[in-house]
Specification:
Blueprint: E1 12-21, E2 30-40, E3 45-49, H1 56-63, E4 78-86, E5 89-90, H2 96-103, E6 106-109, H3 123-134, H4 140-153, H5 170-182, E7 188-192, H6 203-217, E8 220-224, H7 228-234, E9 237-242, E10 245-251, H8 252-258, H9 262-281
Parallel strand pairs: 3-8, 3-9, 6-7, 7-8
Antiparallel strand pairs: 1-2, 1-4, 4-5, 9-10
This protein binds adenosine-5'-triphosphate.
The site of adenosine-5'-triphosphate (ATP) has 14 residues, from β2 and α1.
């Protein structure tokens, strides 16, 4: 079994990768990602962009080692061609034990993660749970301090630790989910729409938390996000998907300047509009 190498560089290697969903309900197998190739160097922050249905979540889940996780068989992602490795671990035929080892270092914030927090646990237990599951022996005080620091960055009062998900707003639940995804100190974090459902005032706090985490750990981040503020603040390179194919890859400014792709054009326009607002406000 190949063990994850935390210093692997590139951290993520993808070559001619194809992924599909199995045939179900009389339908045919569906090819969600086709012939995609790219490398993500160690410590980079990369944004994965593309319109709805372009394959972003599928690729993200697969690279996070969560491809086979879905309860329904029909939603399990099938590797159908090419090559991919994360932290030096080949993803093609990842056995259960190898997957468990890898996912200890690769965090995945699933889309709409705030909506799937365990309802029976309070926020404190939700945050401690990933650690407790891994080991009974951990430094509770040090961890408590780290949680307090994160709560401060993300502007949630410590009293929220005693509350249950149903007592929080949608945006607060999402902020808790983002904190939870960082609890195991992932070397790679793949985050699907981290600011989804969070109001405009609080989105920068999530950006701040991810920036804090990145500076503290040097982790590699893959962000799926339409949040211009987040893209501008964190991402250096972008990957653009369209109908499962990679149609753009490069420096965020160069890709937005070229903007020969409809979806990216819209994002670039939004970016210019935001920049204009900021100038107008000065
Ligand atoms: N369980 C499934 N079975 C069959 N096809 C699926 C399944 N899940 C997703 N797909 C299809 O795979 C394609 C890629 O979906 P995916 O969720 O990866 O896109 P996305 O870019 O993340 O979209 P969004 O931005 O809306 O989340 C879509 O055409 C979608 O309909």
């Amino acid at each position: 079994m190949v063990h994850p190498r935390l210093d692997a560089d590139p951290t993520i290697r993808v070559s001619d990768l194809s992924l599909s969903y199995p045939a179900h309900a009389g339908g045919r197998e569906f090819q969600a990602v086709e012939g995609v190739s790219f490398d993500i160097p160690k410590g980079d922050v990369v944004a994965l962009l593309g319109e709805s249905g372009s394959g972003k979540s599928t690729l993200a889940k697969f690279l996070a080692g969560r491809g086979p996780d879905a309860g329904e068989k029909s939603a399990r992602i099938k590797f159908t061609g090419g090559d991919a490795s994360v932290l030096g671990v080949p993803m093609a035929k990842l056995g259960r034990r190898a997957r468990a080892r890898l996912t200890a270092y690769v965090g995945h914030l699933a889309q709409d993660a705030g909506a799937t927090l365990v309802p029976e646990l309070n926020v404190g237990d939700i945050l401690f749970e990933p650690i407790v599951e891994r080991s009974k022996h951990f430094d509770r005080d040090a961890l408590g301090e780290r949680i307090a620091e994160m709560m401060d960055i993300i502007a949630l009062p410590l009293s929220k630790l005693q509350e249950y998900p149903y007592e929080l707003s949608k945006g607060q639940r999402q902020r808790v989910a983002v904190m939870r995804s960082l609890m195991l100190d992932p070397t790679v974090l793949i985050a699907d729409e981290p600011t989804l459902g969070v109001d405009a005032n609080n989105r920068p706090k999530i950006v701040e938390l991810l920036r804090w985490y990145r500076e503290r750990t040097g982790a590699t981040l893959v962000l799926i996000s339409h949040d211009i503020g987040m893209l501008e603040a964190l991402a250096r390179d972008v990957l653009v998907l369209q109908q499962g194919r990679l149609v753009g890859h490069g420096d965020i400014n160069a890709i937005f300047r070229q903007a020969d792709h409809g979806y990216v054009q819209k994002l670039a326009q939004a970016l210019r509009a935001t920049a204009y607002d900021e100038i107008a406000e000065e």
